[in-house]
């Protein structure tokens, strides 16, 4: 039997929950359909279980996409402070880990609970474990055929997220629906993702697996300072996740493994003051010992500082301060935190996320071509875009 609703939302993730509670608080009858069994699964696993739920500086310059300024309206309409106020209302304790990066002091579950309670108060109905089979628009309304029945809605909100982490339910449904309705879609790629290395670089990295250190990563498009981690497949850690969103196949990245120290000057000083020290032990004053050792071995410098030419010291310094490498690829959607690309913002109204050509059809959250840097920007985009759509449906 066809059930009639004001608002159908596909996707019970961050943006879908925000949109649902907002629309329901405005008196709309809302049903949320999701093929998973649990709501807000990504929220639960985010931030290592503590959910980095926002960044206090959220503004377009921290977002990527063909038109990052598109997100300005929604970010102003529902600000990080507004989400903080919602959490405060429920007594959820928060923690600012690094400047602007807000986490739950206890558990990311609390965020899901807050959103679910807001939805419950508005009478939102959840239809979990439901496969979407077909979506049509007939006589101005949307009909969604599913494995559990058929629903009709005056508005359809697509909140199906990106392609990352398919093992917890990510699919490309949002992009397929956009295409079905003639809405343009920007090609997608994994972002905030570890980078992989070729066999030669992996050989160098092998003894370094597990080492983490502060580093700078630079590409043609961006530059970040944060932690770097050597892994079995290549490079990870926040600095690599950040640069991965800007990196493209075949491009070099430049890594500075000691961003606070000009290694050439430091080695020259050491050569004057400690001429009998081996280059490797001098280097291990500023780098983890295993890394210092791997660098001198790779260059083939087993000598004492006094016996090492300035040219060779320059070579060692460059390997630390200007390590240029070309990643072979990324670890892909399996481990990417987000998806770049998505529904083209040219086809959406920034004030409410509605499609310009299809009245009543909305796309929100990660399905849209707006992707944040690491640090809480992606969830803030989910809250803000979900909110403005919820105000409009
Ligand atoms: P989201 O992915 O939350 O929800 C989409 C929903 O749609 C899911 O419930 C899914 O089951 C459903 N769905 C998909 N396909 C469907 C289909 N075919 N039929 C029915 N339902 C379907 N961001 C941040 O700001 N701070 C952080 O700390 C983190 N940490 C983090 C860790 C990890 C491991 C990941 C993978 C990601 C993050 N993120 C993050 C990113 C953040 O979680 C993400 O950007 C938001 O959850 C996106 O919200 P959406 O509502 O758009 O999609």
Q: Which properties best describe this structure?
A:
393 residues; alpha+beta; 7-stranded mixed sheet; 7-stranded antiparallel sheet; 13 helices; 21 strands; 32% helix; binds dihydroflavine-adenine dinucleotide
Topology:
Elements: E1 2-10, H1 14-25, E2 30-33, H2 41-45, E3 52-55, E4 63-64, H3 72-77, H4 80-89, E5 94-96, E6 101-104, H5 109-122, E7 125-127, E8 132-138, E9 141-146, E10 149-158, H6 173-180, E11 185-191, E12 195-196, H7 199-205, E13 212-218, E14 223-230, E15 234-236, H8 238-244, E16 253-256, H9 263-273, H10 279-283, H11 289-299, H12 310-321, E17 323-325, E18 329-330, E19 338-343, E20 361-363, E21 371-372, H13 377-392
Parallel strand pairs: 1-2, 1-10, 2-7, 10-20
Antiparallel strand pairs: 3-6, 4-21, 5-6, 8-9, 9-10, 11-19, 12-15, 12-18, 13-14, 13-16, 14-15, 16-17
Helix pairs in contact: 1-5, 1-13, 9-12
